[in-house]
Write a structure and sequence with these properties.
The complex is a heterodimer of chains A (173) and B (178). Chain A is 9% helix and 42% strand. By secondary structure, chain A is mostly beta strands. Chain B is mainly beta and 178 residues long. Chain B has helices spanning 2-17, 52-57; strands spanning 35-39, 46-49, 59-71, 75-81, 85-86, 95-101, 112-114, 118-119, 128-133, 145-153, 165-177. In chain B, the strands form 2 sheets. A 5-stranded antiparallel β-sheet of chain B has the order 1-3-10-6-8. Classes of the chains: A mainly beta (173), B mainly beta (178).
Chain lengths: 173, 178
């Protein structure tokens, strides 16, 4: 019994001599939304004629790395046709993940042959992402876009072809 | 003969009058451990993640003269996370701590080892060593070691995809003498 008491006394003294002091500052971290978005404007938009067989013939052009999105959470990219000069052709878009993309691809949904509404119409969803674009230190999602225009739209046209503005928007839902 | 006796008598009296007495007083000096410690809470520890650069690179929050230690011998400063609160369930491991000598330090810096990019352990884990001092903090009459601490918070997109809002990561510092 005596030995136990001595042992406890020794431990108590040892503990008392290795004094410990504690202080606790706090890191206050506020997370806010971050979103940025760029669209490239290629110098040449080379349209390739596609014979649609039973379907309508069309012209298609793929623009690599056309859309870049950096978003701290899920996002949606929409598009609508602006006011075209001349007759408004029917344009549809198809989105693909870019070969140079290093961002997060989990939860991406790509629009396939999405028909653009004409000016003043409602914007159509081209890409939707349920998650952030960040993949570790790589913040960007990059997308290729296929523009497709039915060839019937160009029949009977001569001279300057129509200019079709396409207005993209990105938003965090 | 009379003169000789007188001279001896004079010398004897002279010797008696220059007698020395000695006494010894002891100074009983008990040296005990002395240790004190403080950590500041500067405004620089309030950070906002609101740009893509901050989400990608993280934010470095520098707290100058953040930790002060006065110790009569060598000591170790350790850090560990407290209970994290907030909407994003932030992982303490997303905080890295680097220590350096303080801007106004006048204490002894011989034998100090500074931690670099030390990952903040989760509450309940083992505290990580941030500063090790092999010697006392005293440098002459200057008693205190002061340290700058920089917190690298949320680098590498660690907080991307997390719920927005306010979060608090308490950092529990402890100091012990070696």
């Amino acid at each position: 019994m005596k030995k136990v008491i001595v042992l406890f006394l020794f431990l108590f003294i040892a503990k008392a001599h290795s004094a410990v002091f504690a202080q606790t500052p706090g890191l206050t971290i506020k997370l806010l939304d971050a979103l940025s978005f760029t669209i490239s404007q290629p110098e040449n938009l080379n349209l390739e004629y596609i014979n649609g067989g039973k379907m309508k013939d069309k012209f298609v052009a793929r623009i690599p790395d056309h859309i870049t999105v950096i978003s701290s959470r899920g996002y949606v990219v929409k598009a609508v046709s602006g006011a075209a000069n001349g007759k408004e052709p029917k344009v549809s878009l198809t989105s693909h993940i870019s070969k140079t993309n290093k961002g997060n691809t989990y939860g991406l949904v790509f629009g396939r042959s999405v028909q653009l509404h004409q000016a003043n119409g409602s914007a159509t969803t081209v890409i939707s992402a349920t998650n952030t674009s960040w993949n570790g230190i790589n913040p960007e999602n990059k997308f290729d876009i296929d523009y497709s225009v039915e060839s019937v739209n160009f029949k009977g046209m001569d001279g300057t072809p129509p200019t079709i503005p396409v207005i993209f928007t990105v938003l965090q839902p | 003969m009379k003169r000789v006796i007188l001279t001896f008598a004079l010398i004897a009296v002279s010797l008696l009058s220059t007698k020395t007495f000695a006494q010894t007083a002891n100074l009983n000096i008990t040296i005990s451990d002395v240790l004190s410690f403080s950590v500041t809470q500067p405004a620089s520890l309030d950070v906002n993640f609101d740009t893509e650069a901050k989400y990608t690179n993280g934010i470095t929050a520098l707290a100058t003269d953040h930790v002060s230690v006065t110790s009569s011998r060598g000591y170790v400063v350790k850090a560990i996370a407290g209970t994290v609160t907030g909407s994003a369930a932030i992982a303490p491991g997303s905080v890295k701590i680097t220590s350096a000598v303080g801007a106004t330090n006048n204490g002894n810096i011989t034998g100090i080892t500074y931690g670099s990019a030390v990952t903040l352990p989760v509450s309940g884990g083992t505290a990580a060593t941030v500063i090790t001092a092999a010697n006392t903090s005293w440098s002459g009459s200057n008693s205190t070691n002061k340290f700058n601490i920089s917190y690298l918070i949320g680098a590498g997109g660690a907080y991307a995809g997390k719920a927005t809002g306010l979060n608090v990561v308490p950092v529990v510092y402890t100091v012990t003498q070696q």
